[in-house]
Amino acid sequence: MQNPKLYNLLPVRMRSALERWLDAAAMLASVRDPRVLRALGPSGVRGLLLQRGKQGGATPMRAHHDAWFDWHYPSDQPAMAALYRRAKEGQWDGDDLPWDTSVDPLDPERPLLPRGFIAAERLGDFGVRLTEREEASLRCAFATWMLSQFLHGEQGALFAAAQVTEAVQFFDGKLYGATQVMDEGRHVEVFNRYLDTKLNRLYQVNDNLFVILDALMQDGRWDMKFLGMQIMIEGLALGAFGVLYRRTGEPLLKALLKNVIQDEARHVHYGVVALREHYTHGLSARDREEREDWAFEVALLLRNRFLAFEVYDEWFAGRLSRAQWVSFVQAAPGMQEFREVMFRRLVPNLREIGLLSPRVAPRYEAAGLFRYADGLAADRLTAEGMLTELQ
Ligand SMILES: [Fe+2]
Ligand SMILES: [Fe+2]
């Protein structure tokens, strides 16, 4: 903010709106590639400026993909057929989770998030001091915000899985996709039930998450939906689920996340198999470069912008600036761990599908992300291995 005196004279609501607009302008300005900007720009306006996800109960979005019928029902993708079989065997029923567990979000013995997760004492640097009870309820708000975003993301995953099932050209992929639609429906069910019956609270969709969901829903190219959902958002989700699974002291949430992680590991595996096949055989150099740039920009958006502004608006608008909040959240130990886990998963997957070319590698290097490039991609990592790593 150029003129802090003038800024402080503005009413709090106007200050917060102004900061939102500046923030949106900064996001759009940070996307350097014009084709990526064209793809994300309209969604950025709808999500960040117009806040379409926060205007009422529902948001219609127009889809533009083609459904692909194949009257020969070919079975030519053995890796996808194997995933389909595994998915059928791995189905579980959300009703079987221990829903009779009593959950007290402020119970210090079984905290939703441990004390160190957000390190609230650092708010003292900005002149804000919280009582013990306020600190515990801020942590609860943070956990509820994360779970609410998981739920909104799962709704997007449900629709994206359904669209990709129609649009994909691998028949074994369509059969596999049907299981993913069921999985995502179950994830919506269990996250919604947890929020509704245990936490009695639902945060609105985060504007930045809305931007990406909006862009994926409206993009008619199935592989972009796939890249965005199966690789980027599912990568983000696996990072967040993994950290929460490792850190939470609440047994019902832990059991729920364990089941969801096993499904998501399969989804990312499918994303890697399908895109590797498609990007190896069916893409011009120019189209590949567009995907490389898009993936890099979206990775940065996910890293830099998933920052609980809805919690800020509720707790600290008028007491902290958005910039102070950003520095607080970015330095929170739990959030750092989440970014670490997310990129450890995401970057090897991008390499595996051919989007970590020598042309873009220096950008990953400059963003501090290239150190993950040698890791195992999702097709080599089992859900059991992933969970063991998270113990
Ligand atoms: Fe899911
Ligand atoms: Fe998923």
Can you describe this structure?
With about 400 residues, this protein is mainly α. The protein has a single domain (about 10-390), classed as Orthogonal Bundle (Ribonucleotide Reductase, subunit A), CATH 1.10.620. The protein contains 15 helices and no strands. Helix 5 runs parallel beside helix 7 (about 205-220). The longest helix is centred in the middle third of the chain and has 36 residues, at about 130-165. The mean pLDDT is about 90. One fe (ii) ion binds near residues 157, 184, 234, 264 and 267. One fe (ii) ion (FE2) binds next to helix 9.
Summarize the structure.
The protein has 391 residues and is mainly α. The protein is 66% helix and 0% strand.
Q: Could you tell me the CATH topology label.
A: Ribonucleotide Reductase, subunit A
Mean pLDDT: 89
Distance between the termini: 44 Å
**CATH class designation:** Mainly Alpha
Which architecture per CATH?
Answer: Orthogonal Bundle
Overall SS class: mainly alpha
- The succession of helices and strands, N to C, reads HHHHHHHHHHHHHHH
User: Strand share of the residues?
Assistant: under 5%
Can you tell me the number of structural domains? Answer: 1
CATH superfamily heading: Ribonucleotide Reductase, subunit A
Helix content: 55-70%
